[in-house]
Amino acid sequence: MTEVLRARDVHVVRDGTSLLQEVSLTVRAGEHWALLGANGAGKSTLLRLLGALVHPTRGSVEVLGRRLGRVDLRELRAQVGHVDPRHPLTSPLRVRDVVLTGVTNSIEPVPRRRPTPEQVERAEALLATLGLGAFRDARWPTLSQGQRGRTLIARALMPEPRLLLMDEPATGLDLPGREQLIEALHQLRADRPALATVLVTHHLEELPAGTTHAVLLRAGRVLASGPVESVLTGDQVGKCFDLPLTLERHEGRWSVRIRPGG
């Protein structure tokens, strides 16, 4: 399969503090990765690195076949969908218009630029896929946190990226909102088999059933990486979070609890 991302022996140091050390990772088309770890483990830093938002202090990162440091980052970022639940929009835009800002990768619509009929049609189709067809004319401030999360995923997909990066997209969601988001991601992956995704979380319960690979990060280092069957075990996840854990998987979804007597 085609490589979408490759990080080799990456180190990231900021203000004298080591955030990532000796991190290597390869993501291929159609793979769906989870980045897991406790707060401060380096998950968001790694995601920003993979999304060409920061450069490594040492090591190399290739995104869509182009190496950071040798490519126009603005052009590269336009080809990577990045979902941040802390999206800074404050205007009361309609949902469809929020999605259409993904064409220009801007927070607000660009003045004097009108979307093409094809772009509007694509926005409508993405809203339908993500279960938001009935909310296309709703205003951003009226949306629930879960509806906002799905809107931002649709926005990130507007440029038809080969890679979708999601930084804790279930943050702040209640149980129905979380399950709607997970189901939408499951449907999205089924509809776009070549799309590669990387999702950051520290809750295994937030992983969609179609998750194929996982990385466990602890203190900026990779503790384990590979197919979920070999990485997401009680022993390895327990080491990652420094707790005696038991993991169970049912119909592709995970649950976790502290091992009795551990």
TrEMBL record:
**Any coiled-coil regions, as ranges:** none
Q: Residue limits of the ABC transporter domain? A: 5-244
Q: Name one Pfam family in it.
A: ABC_tran
UniProt keywords, alphabetically: ATP-binding, Nucleotide-binding
Family matches, as InterPro entries:
AAA+_ATPase, ABC_transporter-like_ATP-bd, P-loop_NTPase
Q: Which GO terms describe its molecular function?
A: ATP binding
Name of the protein this chain belongs to: ATP-binding cassette domain-containing protein
